[in-house]
TrEMBL record:
Keywords carried by this UniProt record: ATP-binding, DNA damage, DNA repair, Nucleotide-binding, Nucleus
Classification via PANTHER family: DNA REPAIR PROTEIN RAD51 HOMOLOG 3, DNA REPAIR PROTEIN RAD51 HOMOLOG 3 RAD51C
SUPFAM superfamilies documented for this protein: P-loop containing nucleoside triphosphate hydrolases
A GO BP annotation: meiotic DNA recombinase assembly
Keyword Kinase: no
Localisation per UniProt entry: Nucleus
Protein name per Swiss-Prot or TrEMBL: DNA recombination and repair protein Rad51-like C-terminal domain-containing protein
Organism of derivation: Dentipellis fragilis
Length: 341
């Protein structure tokens, strides 16, 4: 489907003409571009170019099904993964769906890593693999192995379903993301990818300009978008003549810290000298996340053992003027649980 002409896309004639004049002849060529480059080439806004790319990626990965695919196989591809945490699952309508991104953010000590581990363990309990990408030494290979063994006693090969990768610098992260799509065959058993402390490599790269940072975050977004969109393809591996294998690509889970943002009274950005109030926001903002596939949840502690989970973004959008959905939680023996009214 990636060889479809640009004219097949649902854009106005002026956009089709501008895209073609910029040198893009097929949907696949357009899908391989990035928002910043496209905005410059066709003289449009960054948000408009991102919308164009999202439609191109979606069009280039149109779903196809083999006649041999059963209804059960199709239904199973829409599987969700529970975190075994009632307030989190309530905000996710039961669990994280395939081909979606979940960002968990909160201050230090708010159990976001433990929630990520719960979701990963539940995937292993379903006899499916996980890839844990550690970026701040919070979770060592030995600790992850022990957590999997403790949580998955009924899975004899549980440890073999876990892959671990340690990344500490921004160049390492960018190289990994750049190669991730082409190397997915190496992770064919993986159902969940956890990027733990994804903010850290960006924090330590102190020489980044704002423009470069935006460009790199946009590149990460393109990778996540393509990973999610690829789930909608029937991947055709030739096994035997006439036999096809349906594979599904994983969910993506990221954890990040909160950072302080200074605002003026009218809500616009300010600095410490001119601002009137400060708020805590996810460190990387939303530039690296495909909004149509993402759940963003902030952990807001109120006391040492209680607080709320707040859903800031979901694929279904938000109701204008309505407060963000929340679920109360309490920590019991270090584990997050729902609050019984």
């Amino acid at each position: 489907m990636a060889g479809k002409p640009i004219s097949s896309l649902p854009f106005s004639p002026s956009f089709i003409s501008a895209i073609t004049q910029a040198g893009y002849n097929t949907v696949g060529e357009l899908a391989d571009s990035n928002a910043e480059t496209l905005a410059r080439e066709i003289n449009t806004s960054l948000s408009e170019s991102q919308s164009i790319l999202d439609k191109a990626v979606s069009s280039s990965t149109t779903t196809s099904f083999s006649f041999g695919q059963t209804a059960a196989a199709y239904i199973s591809s829409a599987k969700t993964y529970s975190s075994s945490c009632q307030p989190l699952d309530a905000l996710l309508n039961g669990g994280l769906p395939r081909a979606h991104v979940l960002e968990l953010s909160g201050p230090p000590g708010t159990c976001k890593e433990r929630l990520a581990l719960r979701l990963a363990c539940n995937a292993v309990n379903s006899n499916e693999g996980i890839l844990w990408v550690e970026m701040q030494n919070f979770m060592s290979p030995a600790a992850l192995k022990q957590a999997i063994l403790d949580s998955c006693p009924s899975i004899p090969n549980a440890v073999n379903l876990v892959q671990y990768l340690s990344i500490h610098s921004l160049p390492e992260l960018l190289i990994f993301l750049n190669n991730l799509l082409s190397s997915m065959e190496d992770y064919s058993s993986v159902s969940v990818i956890v990027f733990n402390s994804i903010w850290f490599p960006f924090q330590t790269a102190t020489d980044l300009t704002a423009t470069t940072r935006r460009s790199l975050l946009d590149s990460a977004k393109q990778t996540f978008t393509r990973l999610c969109a690829a789930h909608n393809i029937t991947v055709r591996h030739r096994l035997l003549p006439g036999k096809l294998l349906l594979t599904a690509l994983p969910q993506i889970l990221t954890t990040t810290q909160l950072s302080t943002k200074i605002l003026n009274r009218d809500g616009t950005s300010a600095n410490f000298d001119t601002g009137s109030r400060a708020v805590l926001v996810p460190h990387l903002g939303g530039l690296y996340l495909p909004s149509s596939r993402t759940y963003r949840i902030i952990i807001v502690p109120e006391t040492r053992t209680t607080g709320v989970l707040r859903l800031m973004l979901s694929p279904h959008g938000a109701s204008d003027g309505q407060p963000a959905p929340e679920q109360r939680y309490e920590l019991i023996s270090g584990e997050m649980q729902g609050v019984v009214d």
